[in-house]
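note to self — DONT lose this again. spent like an hour looking for the file last time. sequence + predicted structure for the chain T wanted, 96 res
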Amino acid sequence: MLDSARHFIPLEVIRRNLDGLEAVKMNVFHWHLSENQGFRAESKKFPKLHESGSDSLYYTQDEIRDLIVYARDGQDFSGPLFSHRRRRSERQRVGR
């Protein structure tokens, strides 16, 4: 788990951590972005959440999306569990 809610972590450091997770074949990334001490995700619907709960240190929605893509592209999701999930999602997509 990476806890950015209490202490802001720059995106470069998060990417470096993701690279380390990939190097040791870990494929789960739990990112803690909000709690009573901080709100680090940009909210377009409720902007005061990130404005008052982050000391102006928060991740924009685009930055979060990009980091998710970075994490997903770097991981090797192989093995029976992930093959099963992939087949199930493909069946759902084609309506079976």
